[in-house]
């Protein structure tokens, strides 16, 4: 069974309930980013959505734009500030993706959207992960995330596509909340 209108209703309902509760936190994060790093507050990047169509993913910015004498960006590790490290470790940098969900570009649950430049590298089986909208969290995220090989992640993404149900989405959301609360670094949202 493929994701349906019921999935979209679940996405809108849960996001509409969560955003007012999260708005003060998101405002505080935005202010902290502005004070420590300046503008922009959000990081925007083109990612593949449903059927590989591009959309602009939103996240809270976690790195500075620091450059070397030649004008090249410094390595990521040198640009990641303590605030950014905290936002990433708690998955709070992912909160703006709720706007992507409201706009219909993402779902709460689905395969994580990777970079556009990887589209031509997928095998036909792996490319099936784009048969559903990308998600803020997914089956691979609650089953090991960074501890998994890319092949294992893609296999879990395709398993999700083949076994999707509202019950599975709810299970993934509950597991994600549990893992985020426990701060299991290998199972938090995103990346």
Give a brief description.
The chain is mostly helical and 191 residues long. The protein is built from 6 helices and 4 strands, in the order H-E-E-H-H-H-E-E-H-H. The protein has one domain (5-187).
How does the helix and strand content classify structurally?
A: mainly alpha
Total discrete domains: 1
Spatial separation of the terminal alpha carbons: 27 Å
User: What is the beta-strand fraction?
Assistant: 5-15%
Which regions are unreliable across 5 or more consecutive residues at pLDDT < 50? none
| Helix residue percentage | 40-55%
H/E element sequence: HEEHHHEEHH
Task: Please state the average pLDDT score.
Answer: 90
Outline the biggest β-sheet.
2 strands, antiparallel
Spatial strand order of the main sheet? 1-2
Helix count equals 6
Could you give the count of β-strands? 4
| Radius of gyration, taken over Cα atoms and rounded to an integer in Å | 17 Å
The oligomeric status of these chains comes to: single chain
**Tertiary shape:** globular
What would you say this structure looks like, in words?
This protein is mainly alpha-helical. It has one domain (5-187). Helix content is 43%, strand content 10%. The chain is built from six helices and four strands, in the order H-E-E-H-H-H-E-E-H-H. The strands form two sheets. A two-stranded antiparallel ribbon has the order 1-2. Strands 3-4 form a two-stranded parallel sheet. Strand 1 (42-48) and strand 2 (54-60) form a beta hairpin. The radius of gyration is 17 Å and the shape is globular. The mean pLDDT is 90.
């Amino acid at each position: 069974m493929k994701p349906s209108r019921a999935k979209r209703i679940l996405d809108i309902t849960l996001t509409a309930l969560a955003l007012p509760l999260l708005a003060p936190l998101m405002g505080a994060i935005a202010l902290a980013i502005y004070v420590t790093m300046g503008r922009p507050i959000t990081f925007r990047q083109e990612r593949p959505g449903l059927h590989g169509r591009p959309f602009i993913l939103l996240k809270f910015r976690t790195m500075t734009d620091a450059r070397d004498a030649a004008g090249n960006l410094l390595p990521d590790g040198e640009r990641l500030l303590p605030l950014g490290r905290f936002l990433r470790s708690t998955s709070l940098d992912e909160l703006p993706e709720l706007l992507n969900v409201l706009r219909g570009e993402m779902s709460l649950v689905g395969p994580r959207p990777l970079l556009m430049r990887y589209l031509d590298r997928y095998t036909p089986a792996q490319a099936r992960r784009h048969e559903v909208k990308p998600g803020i969290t997914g089956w691979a995220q609650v089953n090991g995330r960074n501890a998994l090989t890319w092949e294992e992640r893609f296999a879990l993404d395709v398993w999700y596509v083949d076994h999707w149900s509202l019950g599975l989405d709810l299970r993934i959301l509950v597991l994600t909340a549990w893992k985020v609360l426990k701060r299991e670094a290998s199972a938090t949202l995103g990346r």
